[in-house]
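STAS domain-containing protein
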Amino acid sequence: MAVLSVFGSLSAATYTRMRDLLLKTVLAQPTAVVVDLEGLAFEWQTAVAVFRAVWNQVADWPGVPILLAATDRADWPLPGFPSVTDALAAVGEPPRRWMVRMPLPVRGSGEFARLAAEETCRIWGLADLAEDAADVADALVGLAARGVRPTVVFEWWQGMLVIGAGEDVVVPCDPQALRCAAIGASRCGWSTTWSDGTLVWAVLDR
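Predicted structure tokens:
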């Protein structure tokens, strides 16, 4: 589990920084993320907006619970608790996941990602998703790879196949290019990571 203690002020000027911090923390996939609000001064509407925006992006995947601590308000868009201890005590067992992460060669990374998608679907008994998964993996790697240390990620849980492509540098988000790369997917997303890299992903429903 991750406890995120935030300090300072949350306002329109710091909205993006807070959103990106939360996304990075959730995408590391701890069992849960507890946000300690005790040291944070915030504008109510901005705080509600940032927590709602992050949860809308990650609710399906990675689906890591986000809990708010040190609050007595009941009208948050996420579960709130009086203390960090209370929030941690409320965390249940995480759902079972299948996941594989593969490093890719710098040259031919897209083709390697296609083969990895097809083989992963074969092993996991998801032959009906193999063709779409290969297309999405190839496209996402083409979007993210910058010749540094590309990776491809596959995760199966709760009837969804998640395909991700990572790189060890920050790649600017291009929403239109991401939507094109994720054709056939029900959802897609982009975020920076704690290692100052980038992760783009898409979700295929079965």
